[in-house]
Write a structure and sequence with these properties.
The protein is α+β, with helices and mostly antiparallel strands. The protein has a single domain, classed as 6 Propeller (Neuraminidase). It contains one helix and eight strands. It has one helix at 3-18, and strands at 49-53, 56-60, 73-77, 82-86, 97-101, 104-108, 129-133, 143-145. The strands form two sheets. It has a four-stranded antiparallel sheet with strand order 1-2-3-4, covered by helices on one side. Strands 5-6-7-8 form a four-stranded antiparallel sheet, with no helix packed on it. The longest helix has 16 residues, at 3-18.
Length: 159
Amino acid sequence: MRGPALFCLLALALAIAGCKEGDEGGSGGSPGDSWATLAPLNEPRQEVGVAALGNRIYVAGGFRADRSTANTVEAYDVAANTWGFVAPMPQGLNHPAAAVVGSRLYVMGGFLGSGPAVASTSTSLAPTTHVFPMPRATMAAWLVIPPRAVSTARAATIP
């Protein structure tokens, strides 16, 4: 999946991540277009990493409502309109980037720790990249790539 289709899936994931039961959307730009409320995340979070792989959208890490940093990862099944937990990351990350290369989901960068002061300290930067090899997803295993020479919370992903 490339270009506009991937963009639409990622936009959908971001919309879903922020939806709560009872939220109502407005009309789209074209006659007949409208927003629909889909299944909410099992664990609402913000400042997450999002990537699409196959017919699923993955949401990794982020801040929970209590400001703790999540290591949880959820997969949204587009066809079934359901969320399910997959293997948690080895450590919690907030503000991570996520990308897919081949059949692997990569979650990188971001911050470790919790609370509002996290972003103000460079010692809280996540130095490693977590890789979820999807063909082995049922094995519930993440791989950890060795740290980069310079850690940063900044990242960009390109489909």
